[in-house]
Amino acid sequence: MSELPSPADEHVPATSVPFGPPDLWADGLGRAGVRSVQVLAVTALAGVLLWIITRIPLVVIPVVVALILAAAISPLVGWLTTHGLPRALAVLASFIAILAVFGGAVSGIIVLIRAQTAELTGRVLAGVDQLHAWLNNGPVPVSDQEIAGVRESIQKFFSSSGFGAEALTGLRTAGEVLAGMVLMAVILFFFLKDGPKIRTFVFGFLPARHRATAAVAAQRSTRVLGGYVRGTAVIAAINALIVGLALAGLQVPLALPLAAFVFVGGFIPIIGATAAGTLAVVTALVSNGPGTAGIVLAVLIGSNQLEHHILQPVLMGKVLNIHGLSILLALAAGTTLAGIIGALLAVPLTAVGWTVFKTWTGRWPLDSAHPER
Predict the structure, then answer these.
(1) Which region holds residue 362: left if phi is over 0, alpha if psi is between -120 and 50, else beta?
(2) What is the CA radius of gyration of the chain?
(3) What's the whole-model pTM score?
(4) What is the C-alpha separation between 122 and 126, in angstroms, rounded?
(5) What's the pLDDT band for 117 if we cut at 50, 70, 90?
């Protein structure tokens, strides 16, 4: 009678071991665990890189601003180059033209402010008296005692040591901004002059199979940045023209400087326009009274609606191709990380990141002129 084979004699394949490592990571929970570890590792790497970047803002911010300006100015440099100028001279001519426009605008604003200082002072004094009377007798009366308390608090703040420390911090920040502007101008010159060489050098670190995709992504990002800057400049100029004409028609002092602030504020979505509009309304309030301030506020609201419903869809819709919620979140993140500079750079950097992502993942094919939504 033959003996029955014992379980120990049976051959058990290695792959069928119930608790072996392959089976431990092969089910859904194991795959989720592996993916979670990968996500945590990538997040940690991104956090370290972001921490390093925020530690050297004097280097990073000029480089980013120079990249954005280079994308906007490169068509002018290309046009001058195609008309016979050497590239270095074309870059220099573009620099001189931009500096002349910018310097002339700043000089004109300073001259206007100095010329209207006396008139503005008289209007402000009269406006303060009018505002005082309106506060005493308005819909929500405010007593002289309460006004005096607010005035005393303001005076204490300006005479406190904290204000002196803030002033010193402001002077140091102004010095850093000046140094950053000089560095940005130097970087911008080399980006415009040697942009193709710099791009080829950077892409040389990538694997050969990714260089073509990187080149297309860079070309599209340059087009997006340039279109964003030029479109924003046009929209900001239209808003500044509307507000400036309204202020001049209402005989509000410093109409042109305030219009210039509106133009500059247009480059910082939501935050900049709000700050510039508030300054215009406050100036109208203290110089011309609540009625004029209300009209200025209505003009600002109408200009904002024109921008959001007509100008931005026509001039910026095809350039950015990103949702308004993404812009809002990018602004919040940029402001938290880098203050006003972060708010200024948040939207163009988000647009570039989205362009690179679509190109790299194939949502925007390399041979297509338009992305998939």
Answers:
(1) left
(2) 30
(3) 0.65
(4) 6
(5) low
